[in-house]
Amino acid sequence: MGSFSYTKEQRLRKRPQFLALGERGKRVQNAYFIAVFAPAQGKVSRLGVTVTKKVGGAVTRNRIKRCVREYFRLNQHRLKAPVDINVIAKKACCQQESPLLAASLDHLFNRVSEGSRH
Q1: Which one of 21, 50, 91, 118 counts the least CB within 10 Å of its CB?
Q2: Domains annotated on the chain, with CATH
Q3: In what helix (H) or strand (E) does residue 33 lie, and over which residues does it extend?
Q4: pLDDT for the residue 41
């Protein structure tokens, strides 16, 4: 099993990275999240998180981002191949507790893993 870290190299950080992923990526969604994903250009999977102001205030948005990052950190080894993922939170997730969000992310990452096989 690999490391459970979440390093700078594992993050989508710049606007061009998000735009390129949006153009070349596939989309899957469930009740609380949308995932845009594509095979990674490098050797590691990278995560970007988008939570807009319509989801809620700063405290709510930060809680959702922490939940998504923590899920990715603990479960990135389950992805079959290196993949770039942008997880976009829907408005419905602002009222939900962390265990329900984690279950939703589990479902989403399973679909990403199935769709990212080369």
Answers
A1: 118
A2: 8-115 (3.30.230.10)
A3: strand 33-39
A4: 86
